[in-house]
Every structure is written in structure tokens, then in C-alpha cells.
Amino acid sequence: MVEQLSPLSFPSKIGGNQTSVTEFLLVGFPLSPRMQLLLFGLFSLLFACTLLGNGVILGLISLDSKLHTPMYFFLSYLATVDIAYACNTVPQMLVNLLSPAQPISFAGCLTQTFLSLTFGYTECLLLMVMSYDRYVAVCLPLRYSTLMSWRVCITLAVASWASGFLMTLVDMLLLLLLPFCGPQKVNHFFCEIVAVLKLACADTHFNQVVIVSAGVLVLVGSVSAIVVSYGHILHAVLQIQSAEGRRKAFSTCSSHLGVVGLFYGTAMIMYVGPQHGDPQEQKKYLLLFHSLFNPMLNPLIYSLRNREVKAALRRRLGKGRPS
Q1: What is the pLDDT of residues 219-267, one digit of tens each?
Q2: Which ranges of 25-105 does DSSP label H, i.e. alpha helix?
Q3: What pTM did the predictor assign?
Q4: Is 69 exposed, middle or buried (0-12, 13-18, 19+ CB in 10 A)?
């Protein structure tokens, strides 16, 4: 009689005995203890800045009625995704820097993989939705309140989350069908799906094709939509006669373009750029940038490049001062 195994208890044969994979070891960054301690301090500071910056953006949008518009509604969702993505990957990395041999459970590893993929897909789609919002604001201002009503905004936001969840679900279901029998060392600082696939004791070619196809579909589709949106925006802005009018129109889009360039620039280098040396190591460091710097820089870009956010911050700080 064959024993039925749960999806999280795949059989492996090590030394002739039947065992099951219950945990993984994250390789992270194999450096000297002194360097790891230094990186722990630096990364902790960056992580705190990420939480503080995005928290301030969320607080301002929530408290200031002048920021209760579709543009800032989507920005609040972007800040939420950035916080969630950083919280999913960075704490485990910090633990590994202090205790390199600290394992992560099999279920915990798969959960981290699922969440990182979901947040990554969702951020791609949210940036695309935000470009559509800017297109309507600049090119169709008279119809803006109709085309970007609160019902439409909520629908677009929920659709972004749902699409990211469903695409990740397909990847994870295919991953759960694979047997894992060692080695148990994940060559990454978190359970990135391709790094986890390398540990499977079966042919993972189909899994990799599905993952790459989904990534290309989301990246190419969202980038194409953003390029089309900003092509129309540029054409509309150039039709504006006054320099002040053009400056104001561009200012509403510059922050979003900065975030788009940062996010998709990293993604394009990771998946499309020329490969030198070890591609896996390159991807590890690019994902480190994406996990630490992108979520931290996004609120800075929106606060430094956006007059309305700076004005809202001044109003909040002014109210907090004693008269």
C-alpha cells in the first residue's frame, strides 16, 4: 500500500532512507562575519527608511482631503505593495546576516515565494493602471471624473491584486507538484522561485517556461500600455500653447515616470539585459536592489517631485506645531 504524502512532504532518498524536506537554508551573501554585521546595520537602516517613507505617504493621503483623488488612491496602493514586498523579503535576509545557518521551513519558504511573486506582478499592473490615470487626466480632462470614478478606481485596484494573485497561483501549483529531495540550500537571500526550482528532483523546464512566459507577458504588456499612454500624453502636452500649461501637465506625470523608470529598468536589466559572469549572482543583487532601494526611493520620488505631496506634508507639520 502506497502511503499518501501531503504536498509539503515530498519524498527524498538520502543514504538509502526515506526522508522528507521540511526546511531550506538560504545561502544569502557568503561574506566575512564583520562584513555581514556591517550589511545588517546598513540594510536595517534602509528597511526602516522604507517603512517610514511609505508610511508617511499613506498617512498623508489618508489624513489630507486634498489628496483624496484617484492619482493618490493608486499611490497609496503602491505604497502598500512596497511595504508588503519589503516586509516579505528583508526581515529574513537580516536574520540570515546575523545567523547564516538559520533555516526557513518548507511551508515558510513557499509562502515567501508566493507573496514575492504576487507583490511583484501587482506592482507591475498598478504602475500600468497609474499611467492610464495620467493619460485620462491630461488627454481627457473633461471626462476624468466619469472615466476615473471611485468605482472604476476600486475595480482597477482590485483587478491588479486579483491578476497578480491568480498568475502566482498557477506558478505555485506547478511548483507544489514537484518532488524535492536535496540539496536544501537556496542560492538566494529569500525563496525566489527560480532558485527554489533548482532544488527539485525532476525536470523543471515546463515550470521555467510558464514563469518566464508570465513575466514577459506582464512586463511587455504593462510597458507597452505605459508607452502608449505617455505617447498620447506627450502629443497632448505639445498642443498646449502656454509654457506654464505644459510645465503643469508634465509635473503631474514626472513622479510616476521616475518610479516606472526605476522599477522597469531593474526588471529589464534582470531579464533582458546582457549576461556577464554568473547570471544567478547578478539576479540576486538586482533583486536586492529591488527589495531594498525601489520601495525606499518610491516615496522619495513622489515627495520630492510632487508639489501637492510637499504641500500636504507642510500642512500636517504646521498643524502639529504649537501656536
Answers
A1: 889 989 999 998 998 888 888 777 777 777 677 677 778 888 888 877 7
A2: 33-63, 70-98
A3: 0.84
A4: middle
